[in-house]
Amino acid sequence: MTTTVAAYAAPSAKAPLERTTIERRAVGEFDVLIDIKFAGICHSDIHQAREGWGEAIFPMVPGHEIAGVVEQVGPGVTKFKVGDRVGVGCMVDSCRECENCLAGQEQHCVRGNVGTYNAVGRDGEPTYGGYSQKVVVDQAFTVKIPDGLSLDVAAPLLCAGITTYAPLKRWGAAPGKKVAVIGLGGLGHMAVKIAHALGAEVTVLSQSLRKKDDGLKLGADHYYATSDAQTFKDLAGTFDVVLSTVSAPLDFGAYLSLLRTGGALVNVGAPEEPIALNLFSLIGGDKILAGSMIGGIAETQEMLDFCAEHGLGAEIELIEASQVNEAYERVLNSDVRYRFVIDAATI
Question: Which residues pair with 253 in a beta bridge?
Fold first, then answer.
């Protein structure tokens, strides 16, 4: 039988979110029913609820940073049992047959992964996200949250954690490497923590020095204001990796100038506007301009285990569900340190 649960949804593009009810599918053979405890608010929730990235599906229940407890399992479930602490990130299905899925890169499924919300599942029904009381997810797209992480600070790791962990690992953040993180927000603060734990020398590049003390406490070795033109002169040719976490267009030529020969500028922030780029800023120094999109399920589990081992939870502000519209505006104004998390008990 389906389950009716309370949720917060955007009824149309740019409309305020409001409390409503949705139907969750019956628990299938390989499904788990999760009693959601906490749901993080990601900037991408706002992009999608306001159609900043293109046409969307409404009503929309956002939320792809989900932490909760297993309430029921299907008869074929082997990975989880009732009472397990689990998480769900940005996707809830894929074809599971293409070369990318078989390589553990389900986020790059050739047929397209199924997003946790604002997507259509293999059953033809729209998906609804974590701003809700419960969710039903296939065990293959559910991960274990280690005991070393409390569920509230673990929730943002299901997007912000894997979104920064995957490129930092791929591009070699490690002892002896210099990593710069552009922006100290929901993504950026986790990037700093993770890069530091990986052993890299970490620099934050932010518009101002307003959050400098925070950045240093989170693990940064250095902190510079990008509003100061001298920063780009002083740091020219310094970094092995520059990770951009911001959702605004940048002067890519200026940031590419900060890389060493062969260095990489990797983007995980996704501005709504196109960017301009003079290719000579890439050609000189054999530099790399790259992107990265979350990570596969196995890598997400690896990230959670790594964060638990190093005590890396997100820095959060816990809110009631009724505050979600205010939280959206505060995110847009960079007025959060550093991730809003909804207490699902208030939905």
Answer: none
